[in-house]
Amino acid sequence: MSYVIGVDLGTSAVKLLLVDQAGEVALEVSKEYPLLHEQAGYSEQRLMIG
Question: How many domains, in total, are found in the chain?
């Protein structure tokens, strides 16, 4: 069976969907990451590896 992966890279989380040929969602995963607000009007993200 073939699948398609959908990726939504948002402001505060990344979400993944695994969808089969019939359009049914086989798996859904979401991982949040923090936003830093060190100055008014600014938002940033820091990559944490490991």
Answer: 1
